[in-house]
Design a protein that fits this description.
This protein has 114 residues and is α+β, with helices and mostly antiparallel strands. The chain has one domain. It has a four-stranded antiparallel β-sheet, covered by helices on one side.
Length: 114
């Protein structure tokens, strides 16, 4: 007689395999949502970087506070000056799966002649 699996062993294996496949399917949606949130976070960081780079190219006296929608992301920035530097605070708002989020980015730029 050849060794073989019994019908009970086959049924248990099928149930275990089914539970594993269902667990993978359930987490696939969660993973997709996290990937989407990561894309939105990356897009907002690029928008903040774009604003900072634009302000960095201006002479210190021309850098002013403002707001805009670079890359479709709401961004506000505040500029504060002293005699040697310009301090910039960029606030980026975005909506994630878990709710709204606001990220703040800071930069200090040395003025010419300092």
């Amino acid at each position: 007689m050849r060794p073989a699996f019994t019908i009970v062993e086959l049924m248990v294996a099928i149930v275990v395999l089914t539970v594993g496949v269902l667990a993978l399917a359930a987490t696939a949606g969660l993973v997709a949502a996290h990937v989407g949130d990561g894309g939105r976070l990356t897009n907002s960081a690029h928008a903040a970087r774009s604003v900072l780079d634009s302000l960095r190219t201006l002479p210190c006296e021309r850098a002013v506070s403002g707001a805009g929608l670079p890359r479709g992301v709401p961004v506000t920035w505040t500029v504060a000056r002293d005699s040697l530097t310009v301090s910039i605070e960029v606030i980026v708002g975005l909506t994630l799966r878990r709710g709204n989020r606001r990220d703040t980015h800071h930069a200090v730029i040395a003025c010419a002649g300092s």
